[in-house]
Design brief:
alpha+beta; globular; Beta-lactamase; disordered N terminus; about 400 residues; 14 strands; 7-stranded antiparallel β-sheet
C-alpha cells in the first residue's frame, strides 16, 4: 500500500543532519510482570525475535492476547543502541498508520452522536481554507475518505513536497502546507469507483473532526484513551509525549548496509507533522487493548463496527480495506487490523477471529523503504505469525 514517502536522497540526510540531543523526560518503564509468564510459545517467540535482532534489527517488541491463553508480552534487542538500553514490553512504540484506526473510531463515534453523516459531502464539514484546496471536493463523501475510495491524491507523491522535506528534514510541517500540496490537482479517479490508499484522506478526516469537536486529538483521548484506560498511549494530548525516556530511538538503514543510523530527530519531526494518518505512540499492550476494546463493543455500537468491516476490493477483487481497518487473508485465515510503516519504525496490529487472538508487533527500524533490514522486519513478522498460529 502507498505509504508516506519523505526522503529519497540518503547522502543529503547524512550530510545535513546533526541529531538533536534527546530530552530524557522521566517516565517509568515498568515491565508488565503480571502477565502470563508460562505462555506455551514464549520460548519460540523470544528465539525468533532474538535471531532477527542479532542479525541487525535494533529491537523488536510484541504482545499477544488470546481467549485461551490470556496475555503475553516480550521483547528483544535494544530500544536505544547507543546506551545499550534493552527493549522492553513497556517501551513506547510508534504506531504510524495504525493511527488511522483510532481516527476512524472517532469519526464513527461522531456519527453515532448525530454530528456527522458518512455519506455527506466533505464540504459540509471541512472548513476553509482546506476545502478550497481540493478539486471537486463536493463529490467526495466522508465514507470515501475512510475507505480510501475518494480519488484524492497522495500528498507525499508530490515532488515539490518531497523536495521541501528533504531540504528541511527536522522541521515540523503544518497541516495547511500538507493539504496545500495537492491544491487544484485532479482527482485520480471518479470518487467511489475504486480503492487507492492515500494518507491525505486521513489528514482531511482529522481536520473534519477538528471542525466538529474543536480538537480531534482531545476527542480521541477522551473517547478512546480514557474510555479504555490506556495510560501508555499518547497523541498530542501530552506536549512532551515524543520525549519520554520510554519512547524507543528510531533507526534507518540509509545506505542499506545492515548498520542503521540513529534518525530519532527526523522521526520526531515526521510524526509531529501529521494528523489523523499518523502520530500515536503506545506500548504493545495498550495497542492490543485498543483493538480488543473495539472488537468487544466498548468503543462503538455493533452497527458501527460492522460498517468498519464493510470491505472494499482491490483491482483483483480481493477485500482490502474497510473504514480505518485493513483486511488480511493468508492460507485461508482471515484477519483485520492495520499496519504502519515509517522512516524509523514499523508495526502491525491484528485480530485473528478464528484463533480469537490479538497480536501487536513493532520494530524501531524504518520499514518504509525497501532494504535488507526492512525485508528482515517483514520476515520477522511472518515467522512470528506462523509460530503463534501453529
Amino acid at each position: 500500500m502507498m505509504k508516506k514517502i519523505f526522503l529519497t536522497a540518503a547522502v543529503i540526510i547524512l550530510t545535513s543532519i546533526s541529531l538533536k540531543a534527546q530530552n530524557n523526560n522521566e517516565r517509568a518503564c515498568n515491565v508488565y510482570s503480571s502477565f502470563n509468564n508460562h505462555y506455551v510459545r514464549a520460548d519460540s517467540l523470544h528465539a525468533i525475535m532474538k535471531r532477527y535482532t542479532e542479525a541487525g534489527l535494533p529491537g523488536a517488541a510484541m504482545a499477544i492476547y488470546s481467549q485461551k491463553n490470556g496475555w503475553w508480552a516480550g521483547a528483544e534487542g535494544y530500544s536505544k543502541i547507543e546506551t545499550k538500553e534493552l527493549m522492553q514490553n513497556c517501551n513506547l512504540q510508534y504506531l504510524q498508520s495504525v493511527s488511522k484506526s483510532y481516527m476512524a473510531v472517532a469519526i464513527l463515534h461522531l456519527q453515532e452522536q448525530g454530528k456527522i453523516e458518512l455519506d455527506a459531502p466533505i464540504t459540509k464539514y471541512l472548513s476553509a481554507p482546506y476545502s478550497g484546496y481540493l478539486k471537486n471536493a463536493a463529490s467526495v463523501t466522508v465514507r470515501m475518505l475512510l475507505n480510501h475510495t475518494s480519488g484524492i491524491p497522495e500528498y507525499s507523491d508530490d515532488p515539490a513536497f518531497v523536495s521541501y522535506v528533504v531540504q528541511h528534514p527536522l522541521q515540523k510541517i503544518s497541516t495547511e502546507f500538507v493539504i496545500r500540496t495537492i491544491a487544484d490537482k485532479k482527482l485520480m479517479f471518479t470518487p467511489g469507483s475504486k480503492h487507492h490508499y492515500s494518507n491525505t484522506n486521513y489528514e482531511l478526516l482529522a481536520l473534519i473532526a477538528d471542525a466538529i469537536t474543536g480538537n480531534h486529538a482531545a476527542y480521541i483521548a477522551r473517547i478512546i484513551f480514557a474510555k479504555l484506560e490506556l495510560k501508555n498511549t499518547f497523541y498530542r494530548n501530552d506536549k512532551q509525549y515524543l520525549h519520554y525516556k520510554q519512547l524507543v530511538n528510531s533507526y534507518w538503514d540509509v545506505l542499506n548496509t545492515g548498520r542503521p543510523a540513529n534518525i530519532t530527530a527526523m522521526q520526531h519531526a515526521n510524526v509531529s507533522s501529521f494528523i489523523g494518518d499518523d502520530g500515536i505512540v503506545s506500548t504493545p499492550i495498550d495497542a492490543i487493548k485498543f483493538l480488543k476494546g473495539l472488537t468487544e463493543g466498548k468503543l462503538l455500537s455493533d452497527a458501527s463496527l460492522k460498517e468498519m468491516q464493510t470491505w472494499v476490493n482491490d483491482e483483483q477483487g480481493n477485500p482490502v480495506y474497510g473504514l480505518g481497518l485493513e483486511h488480511y487473508e493468508a492460507g485461508g485465515i482471515e484477519a483485520w487490523g492495520h499496519s504502519g510503516g515509517g522512516i524509523g519504525a514499523g508495526c502491525i496490529l491484528l485480530y485473528i477471529p478464528v484463533a480469537q487472538t490479538y497480536i501487536f508487533l513493532a520494530t524501531n527500524v524504518g520499514t518504509l523503504f525497501e532494504g535488507s533490514l526492512s525485508t528482515k522486519a517483514n520476515q520477522l513478522k511472518d515467522e512470528l505469525l506462523i509460530a503463534i498460529l501453529q
